[in-house]
Design a protein that fits this description.
Length: about 270
């Protein structure tokens, strides 16, 4: 992909620049959304822009106009000739000081696209020893402050897993580094409630509408004890979990996972902005 949009301009990637004083570079001050692109259309764009607004409000960043972002997303997809792939919107605090205080400047806005990620049919996960803080200022916001996720994912990969899973401060199941978690227990499909500190994933939200899912607080141990489990995200869609900390689950995919995957696939075929 060779064209990106930065602050009002479509530019070749080689000419695209962000200031070394941008507050996202200096402090992680920014929010983002990643959308799946199917048939040259960003999927569930309205829901992603809703969450972008919520994240920006939580970080006290003024978001760009929604109509502008929708136009820019289409322009970047078309300029890159993208049919199937991923799109990312990033909004930062703009050029600022070397400290935590944000300058009174216009935010930096970036829209870029790339090819789809080739996820395996199923993945192993590792539970990490560091909890999510469900009471923190950034809980539930999709920010660019991903250092914790980078460390957790490296921890999981060192153990042969493809994703890391966090508990929270009270020992309940929370989320992955870029995923929501669903578990099948005795024929019931359950996902952690938002009070756990997990991100309100767009795919998670869609599945809550498409299939029978309960939102409940679950002990972290419920994941390894599940009959089946899966991860969701915009790019992974529905990905079965094969093993937890090296211990295989009963089925990957199990019947609940298969039903969720089929429901999402059917939605993608019939409605690209649900």
């Amino acid at each position: 992909m060779n064209v990106v949009w930065i602050d009002g301009e479509l530019l070749p990637v080689e000419q695209a620049r962000v200031s070394p004083f941008d507050h996202a570079v200096l402090t992680g001050d920014g929010v983002f959304e990643t959308l799946r692109v199917y048939r040259s259309i960003p999927f569930a764009a309205g829901r992603h822009l809703d969450r972008l607004d919520r994240s920006a409000a939580g970080l006290r960043l003024p978001p760009p106009e929604r109509d502008l972002l929708r136009t820019v997303m289409d322009e970047v997809v078309a300029a890159n000739g993208l049919v199937d792939g991923r799109l990312r919107i990033t909004i930062t605090g703009g050029v600022g000081s070397l400290g935590s205080d944000r300058a009174a400047v216009r935010p930096t806005v970036i829209v870029a696209v790339g090819p789809p990620t080739a996820w395996p049919a199923a993945t192993d996960v590792a539970v990490v020893p560091w909890p999510r803080n469900e009471r923190g200022a950034l809980a539930g916001l999709k920010t660019v402050s991903y250092g914790e996720n980078v460390v957790a994912l490296a921890h999981a990969q060192e153990r042969g897993a493809g994703e890391a899973v966090f508990g929270n401060l009270v020992g309940n199941l929370c989320e992955g580094t870029g995923t929501n978690v669903f578990v099948g227990l005795g024929g019931r499909l359950v996902t952690p409630s938002l009070s756990s500190g997990c991100l309100a994933g767009v795919t998670r939200e869609l599945l809550l509408e498409l299939v029978d899912v309960a939102e409940e607080d679950l002990p972290l141990s419920a994941l390894a004890a599940a009959d089946e489990a899966f991860l969701t995200s915009s790019t992974r869609e529905v990905q079965p979990i094969r093993a937890v900390d090296g211990e295989p689950l009963g089925a990957a995919p199990g019947p609940l996972t298969q039903a969720a995957s089929a429901a999402l696939a059917d939605l993608v075929e019939r409605d690209l902005d649900p």
